[in-house]
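re: that chain from earlier
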Amino acid sequence: MKSTNKIKVSAGRRAFMAFNYLFFVCIIILCAYPLWYVLVQSLSGEIVSGEGVIWPYKFTLRNYQQVMQLKGLRRVQDFGAAHDNRLCRDGALLYAAGLSVL
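^ sequence. v structure.
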């Protein structure tokens, strides 16, 4: 047996929903494109005007290799590891979590 009790949606409601979906898709594109652009440029071998905007121009991981070879990078990683224990021991992490709940 088919149910005929359907809720009717007005034309104004449909127009609002269509506009709402379109608006949020535009917002998502505006937020995601800069992140995608940076990722594509970091994976491109060389920067060429107009090339590599949607896909990497010449795919390479050389840029990431250069970053990992920086001399100061290891000190920054060690600094973070040394301070993780102090944050937990002093209760600062619990204090921040408690304030976040409030």
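The chain has a mean pLDDT of 77.
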